[in-house]
Amino acid sequence: MRRWLAFGPIVLSLPLFLLAADTRPVEKTPRSVPQFMLKDTTGKGWSLNDQKAKKAIVVVFVGTECPINNAYMPRLAELHKEYAPRGVAFVAINANSTDAPARVAAHAKDHGIPFPVLKDTANIVADQFGARRTPEAFVLDSSGKILYQGRIDDQIGIGFQRPAPTRRDLAEALNEVLAGKPVSQPATQAPGCAIARTIKPKTSGSITYSKDVAPILQKNCQECHRPSQVGPMALLSYEDALGWAESIREVVEERRMPPWHADPKFGHFANDRSLSKAERETLLAWIKQDCPQGNPRDLPAPRRFPEEWTIGKPDAVFSMPNTFHVPAKGGKNGIRYQYFQVDMNFEEDRWIQAAEARPGNRAVVHHIIAYIAKTGERFEQRGPDGIGDKMLVAFAPGDLPAVFAPGIAKKVPKGSTLLFQMHYTPNGVEQDDRSSVGLIFAKQPPKHEVLTRAITQRRFTIPPGADNQEVKSATTFKEDALLLSLFPHMHLRGKDFEYRIVFPDGKSEVLLRVPRYDFNWQSHYRLAKPIKMPAGTRIECTAHFDNSANNPNNPDPQKTVRWGEQTWEEMMIGFVDYVNLAKTKE
Q1: CATH 1.10.357.10 fits domain 20-194
Q2: Are 193 and 132 spatial neighbours (Cβ–Cβ below 8 Å)?
Q3: pLDDT tens, 537-569?
Q4: pLDDT digits (tens, 9 = 90+) for 107-123
Q5: Which fold has domain 306-446?
Q6: Cα–Cα dist 370/420, whole Å
Q7: In 550-571, which positions are buried (b, 16+ CB within 10 angstroms) versus exposed (e)?
Q8: Where are the domains of the chain?
Q9: At what angle do helices 277-288 and 245-253 cross, to 10 degrees?
Q10: ω into residue 201 within 30 of 0, thus cis?
Q11: What whole-number distance in Å separates Cα of residue 336 and Cα of residue 425?
């Protein structure tokens, strides 16, 4: 089971994926890079030696799949527009072994990169520069001396996105160089994906991809890391894993991948994505042993995924009635929610066994919520139960389709319409979207109807600068029930969340603790074993919010924050899926 919710606008969704912050020391002594010549996406040669007339040269190492890299492409275009007329040359270099020249060319076109993009086969030039990340920027003088190395600015990093940069590092370096001054901060750490360097693996080893690594990737990674899914790079083959081996090492060591935010001390969940200690050790040992492939005959059978819909072929598909054009930029507060209503034309009640909201354009769709509605109906969060049972299915980063166990299902009354609530996040390039919802019907009326309750606290105030503001909510079940799943929801100031169950006899236990809440990676926690709740059982939710300047995601630490639908406001909701055992159908 899963849950769905209402989000507020956010400029960009950045799940962690195979991202990393470079923690190695950066060199502060100016050094020069050798002259080089590479071909751009049109086949034309580009030489550093030809740039001697320029006042400065910006070299940015880029990739095609890294989310932070792609988020900065519009920023680089803006910097080019600002500084090229002032005598600054711009060039991008792709050194990823995983990016073929055709893919590099398509990426440059799709992102509107207005300067040459070169292909660095075998990462020879990247090694000469000492480049480590995508994106990573270098400022050179006309002789090839490195004057600056590091990030473009500090707006986007691992697990955060500031409303605006506090320091425009690349721009500051260029301003100082053009003014004839030394660069005041010549080196910074660049976040992003490790360059997928060419690796010469060992032919054999005690741990191999075929026998040991492939099964782990199948079980824990491929659900997201495959074409057309939320993961930015595929991990379906030996070549994929070899190319991203350094990134895999970093995120496994730091336990950021696979993404799973539940404290392992509490609760057991059917959809737990986390790696076991043995699995982590296996992956790290394989990389340390230079990634041997092993015997391909040891490979497990490929994991089969539905080609289009995760739930399989739907019995019915409902799409937005028209395409929505997403502008390149959304203004100060982003794009307001867009609503699209579709008649389902059900002449009788229908029971939904599985449902999936599918973005038409993942690049700009932050979330979809599909409501069961009447013609012209709109919704707001209201009361302790919110509008849980008006929600049918949703899409959000990190969440999964709604697939209900046999014997339980969601009810769609006859004559209902499907209301799409769409949240779009502009990414600097004009886009179009037409999203859809797919449904699979139960083959017979279920024994239990899935219900949803939003354990909500609307009356709270978070003072400016408060770094650990506590907010609580609770609900009591008046009839016997069976608890199926949990879904905590807050916005950008959300810090942590806990569910506790208190039984009528006074016994209590923590169901779920999320010590580091991440708005950009929404997780739904499906109980491995449903919990029986006698009448009188209470569920208590406790959340903490960080409204201080130490929270880089904070839209405004000087603002008093209250309940609201938009991202710069806050919500405190503990969604639960359950069935009412008192209303069991015989």
Answers
A1: no
A2: no
A3: 999 999 999 999 999 989 899 999 999 877 789
A4: 999 999 999 999 999 99
A5: Jelly Rolls (2.60.120)
A6: 5
A7: ebbbbbebebebebeebbbbbb
A8: 20-194, 209-298, 306-446
A9: 140
A10: no
A11: 10
